[in-house]
Amino acid sequence: MLIHSASQLLTLAGGPQRGPDLGRLEIIPDGAALIRDEKILVVGPSRELLAAYPDEPLLDAGGKVVMPGFVDPHTHAIFAGDRSAEFEQRLQGKTYLEILAEGGGILSTVRATRTASLEKIVNETRSRLWSMFSYGTTTAEVKTGYGLRTATELRMLQALLALDKEGPLEIAPTFMGAHAIAPEYRGRPQEYTDFVCSTMLPVLRQWWPHNAPYHEMPFVDVFCETGAFSLDQSRSIFSAAKDMGFPLKIHADEFDNLGGARLAVEFGAVSADHLVKTSPGDISILANSDTVAVALPCTPFGLAEAHYTPAQAILQAGGLLAIATDLNPGTAWCESMQFALALACRYMRLTPAQAIAAATINSAAAIQRADRVGSLEPGKQADLLILSVPDYRHLGYRFGINLVQTVIKRGRIYPN
Amino acid sequence: MLIHSASQLLTLAGGPQRGPDLGRLEIIPDGAALIRDEKILVVGPSRELLAAYPDEPLLDAGGKVVMPGFVDPHTHAIFAGDRSAEFEQRLQGKTYLEILAEGGGILSTVRATRTASLEKIVNETRSRLWSMFSYGTTTAEVKTGYGLRTATELRMLQALLALDKEGPLEIAPTFMGAHAIAPEYRGRPQEYTDFVCSTMLPVLRQWWPHNAPYHEMPFVDVFCETGAFSLDQSRSIFSAAKDMGFPLKIHADEFDNLGGARLAVEFGAVSADHLVKTSPGDISILANSDTVAVALPCTPFGLAEAHYTPAQAILQAGGLLAIATDLNPGTAWCESMQFALALACRYMRLTPAQAIAAATINSAAAIQRADRVGSLEPGKQADLLILSVPDYRHLGYRFGINLVQTVIKRGRIYPN
Question: At the topology level of CATH, where does A2-68+374-415 sit?
Fold first, then answer.
């Protein structure tokens, strides 16, 4: 299939973009892309490709932007239920601690997820994945972490593997038994940490190859934060997970700086995420590593907080910056990477070009898939979007609606 | 047609909601609505209506929320072109004054609109109206104001009347020759004001009944702001317009408080809009009048500004509060009232119920149509939404995507 007549074909060629280099879209005006066997075979000017492949079935992009599908590298998309009542209570003046005392917050989603049937969880999650897909996300990381006991966490992973297989959205799974202290271990975080290290992770290490023999290892993620896991506890979990060969991720510096970003660099983690309260020193350490800094602008927005990830400082220090939605039922129920871009432009001062690179090739790097997705280059997966607009700068500029007209996943066309 | 099995049927019955009364949704659990001749005939519990009207064609709401269509009472949806390049320049550090000096800002949209063919303007506007409609807006106010000369302003009105007739979105047109000082009158705001009063408005007064004999008079709106029209100039325009029988609206206190809100009350304007810098004294005067206070949260969001309309103060003073998108190509290109609600909850501290009332029955009042739309009551237009969620509180809580599954306009079904 030959997709032609794109006003701008954004290839994002050349690999992940570091520091001030962020924002190289590598635009082909009046561009075209030839797709064979679910992959990009060649990109170039429409005139050349139409002449070179005269018998190819055509898809006319109609003078609109064609670009790689978004890669969302941080989501908690698998859960049951919702916390809409809690959202209303907060607006009526109830404090977070009051809600927590009544059994609300993250533990209410844990309760809902533990008690829901697998079918219910899969159905609810599938509907979110389709929503993400229709807004242009063709690959997404999805974390467990609302089980907080071995069986439920593995059930979530099982569901993610099944949903990945079902498609069309491709899932990079993450195990996050260390998302919060399990309610059974209330007040005993060290014991729960030991349980994660000595039981959950070893069981996972055994379980995985039998259940996903075709699949690379899942990420292991830790919430390093006051009220969740301390720096030492995070270090124990990282240490155990690394010894077993798991690639690492961390939730760091969302509300407090406990040193999570430095820990990520020390352990060669794939990404460090949130990074709102990261100190200049930690930014410098992170920016000089290969750990990708993942900003989650929907979360401060969801909470109406004023502070966002200091993206400009990360770029000036030469870091690898990506953005994600953080889709979750508490702070940011948002399936749209387009909206994360709109926030990144306004509150992290990224240009639309920078936000696009951070949401495609760099976010692919944040889940170790930059060799397969995130750009339109020969040999890469044919994951593309046709937007409904003629200029890429409409992304970020316009907000609240869907500017994706057609999603193409592994060469298959899904019109919106 | 009988729409039944709504988990919650929000009727918003009882007319516009003043002050702390805002947020009365009047929910019918497991609700139903009977539609005849494009109108609501009766609402009630599903079981009762299904028994009373056994031969009616059925539409199963499937356990989701049914509510009135959104009424968007403040948009600049009719224009040509876009300002995406300017958005990028601002993010690259160019100041608004530099952009203005290069011919950017509102006057670049005036240029694009003046030079575009009527067909192009209508096509571009139609696409925005459909987008608004699919996100749940069934009635919208739309302002002229990118012509700034008589012929172009009237051409815009003509286009709005044609688009209204075409449907399905219903349009309440507003004449806004006083949106900015026309470029021909640069530095001579008083002369342009005189021109609006002595030429534009009288020509409009003659033109209207010949071109829209079936239609009530359009609103006349003024941008009372530093750099636009002073309080005295706004007063002259209000005075001339009122004498000719036009209902009035005003853009007041967006960046500076010039006294526009008080002027609105003095002249019995239908609404005063923006109201970011309104003083406590002016809030009190406004809240004790029948002039609706229209908050436009997408505009500070679009500009990444910290200050929003002080909705709580307006409600405590007993005011009539509505919300709108302010859809425009400069500061807020957003078609979605759902997103305006999400902002209103976070930055104006409205509960979802308050935001919904402000976006339906109260916004209908802001365009003098609360007798026809904005609630589901016998005799009102059958303008309804079926959401994709079981609880109204998902509005506001979730953001960035479309939670409307089906739009029903005058009894006709438009699935998303």
Answer: Urease, subunit C; domain 1 (2.30.40)
